[in-house]
């Protein structure tokens, strides 16, 4: 009978043929093992032939319920007989483990807990542009983490925790699903670290470069001065002045704090007119998401870009004129 601690399971049993023994083993219920063994050196006519003791290998698998550290395996012989069914004296069961040979029939299986030894991160972009601080929704960047365990197993289902080393640059969800901006960042960086860890003491880092806009952004108008272009009559007593409209263009200078900079055209900004009696914000169908100012009444005002926190991130003066 082979007794094992919880979590250990007998997978197979076979003989060491170098000892001159062979045979067959069957594993039954309750880990009762039936062994039929024969010695290739056995010879009835020659009593001088030395017969070695049989040597058996037991292959044990380790399940998730096994505990780390020392696990016990115990082997005891219930009965033994020869090929003709005659009882024979039972030899003591010797067990050899990493500590040596034991005559008690009691050995130990050493189980190391499966631990993560490495983690590999893949993302769509390692360089991120923070436009969220301008009020432009840029979504988030998904983290795909694959782990390697001490058992050599590769998994993408490991439980990790993530933390940004500088949330003024970049933020990360605590469950490591994605990194993101919330518009409250204050700077960029050529390298901001995301710390990835778990409850077993594993820790590694993954870095991003973050581009951050210089404020205020640059707003340009197709027509800084919108002039009267026509009069129209909708009813006999009313004449309406029609003024020109102007496309609004915006550009931002981005830096990641390393002396490098780049200029980007910005789409998706929230524009407002400070004096809406002078002009109104609209869009023009042929230009898609290009925002326009429509002149309404003669005067001067500013068009401003406002982020999600209500902060003005850029402005440009314009005039509506009757001339």
Care to describe what's here?
The chain has 323 residues and is mainly β. The mean pLDDT is 84. 0% of the residues lie in helices and 52% in strands. The chain has no helices and 29 strands. Strands 11, 15, 18, 19, 20, 23, 24, 26 and 27 form a 9-stranded mixed β-sheet that branches. A hairpin with a 5-residue loop joins strand 3 and strand 4 (33-39). The N and C termini lie far apart (107 Å).
Structural class based on helices, strands and sheet pairing: mainly beta
Q: What is the overall silhouette?
A: rod-shaped
How far is it from the N-terminal to the C-terminal residue, by CA? Answer: 107 Å
What is the ordering of alpha helices and beta strands? EEEEEEEEEEEEEEEEEEEEEEEEEEEEE
Q: Which segments are poorly predicted (pLDDT under 50) over 5 or more consecutive residues?
A: none
Beta strands, count:
29
The averaged pLDDT comes out at 84
Instruction: Give the number of helices.
Output: 0
* Main sheet record: 9 strands, mixed
Rg value: 40 Å
Helix content: under 10%
State which percent range the strand residues make up. Answer: over 45%
Task: List the SSEs and their pairings.
Elements: E1 2-4, E2 8-15, E3 21-27, E4 33-39, E5 56-62, E6 69-75, E7 95-97, E8 100-102, E9 106-111, E10 116-122, E11 127-129, E12 140-142, E13 144-149, E14 154-155, E15 161-164, E16 171-172, E17 178-180, E18 189-197, E19 203-213, E20 218-221, E21 225-235, E22 238-243, E23 245-255, E24 261-265, E25 271-273, E26 279-283, E27 291-295, E28 299-306, E29 312-321
Parallel strand pairs: 11-19, 21-29
Antiparallel strand pairs: 1-6, 2-5, 3-4, 6-9, 7-8, 10-13, 12-17, 13-14, 15-18, 16-17, 18-19, 19-23, 20-23, 21-22, 23-24, 23-27, 25-28, 26-27, 28-29
């Amino acid at each position: 009978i082979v007794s094992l601690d919880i979590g250990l399971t007998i997978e197979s049993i076979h003989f060491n043929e170098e000892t001159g023994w062979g045979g067959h083993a069957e594993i039954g219920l309750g880990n009762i093992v039936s062994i039929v063994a024969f010695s290739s050196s056995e010879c009835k006519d020659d009593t001088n032939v030395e017969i070695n003791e049989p040597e058996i290998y037991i292959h044990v698998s380790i399940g998730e319920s096994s505990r780390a550290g020392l696990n016990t395996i115990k082997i005891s012989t219930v009965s033994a007989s020869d090929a003709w069914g005659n009882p024979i004296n039972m030899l003591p069961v010797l067990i050899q483990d990493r500590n040596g040979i034991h005559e008690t029939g009691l050995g130990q299986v050493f189980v190391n807990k499966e631990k993560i030894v490495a983690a590999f991160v893949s993302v769509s972009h390692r360089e991120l542009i923070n436009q969220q601080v301008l009020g432009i929704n840029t979504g988030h960047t998904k983290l795909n983490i694959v782990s390697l365990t001490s058992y050599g197993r590769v998994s993408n289902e490991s439980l990790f925790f993530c933390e940004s080393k500088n949330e003024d640059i970049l933020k990360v969800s605590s469950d490591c699903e994605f990194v993101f901006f919330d518009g409250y960042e204050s700077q960029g960086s050529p390298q901001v670290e995301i710390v990835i860890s778990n409850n077993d003491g594993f820790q590694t880092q993954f870095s991003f470069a973050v581009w951050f806009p210089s404020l205020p952004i640059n707003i340009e108008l197709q027509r800084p001065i919108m002039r009267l272009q026509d009069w129209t009559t909708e009813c006999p007593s009313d004449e309406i002045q029609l003024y020109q409209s102007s496309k609004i263009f915006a550009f931002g200078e981005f830096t990641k704090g390393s002396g490098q900079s780049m200029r980007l055209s910005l789409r998706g900004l929230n524009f407002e007119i400070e004096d809406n009696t002078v002009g109104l914000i609209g869009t023009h169908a042929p230009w898609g998401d290009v925002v326009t100012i429509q002149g309404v009444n003669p005067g001067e005002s500013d068009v401003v870009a406002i982020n999600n926190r209500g902060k003005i991130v850029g402005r440009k003066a314009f005039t509506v004129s009757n001339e």
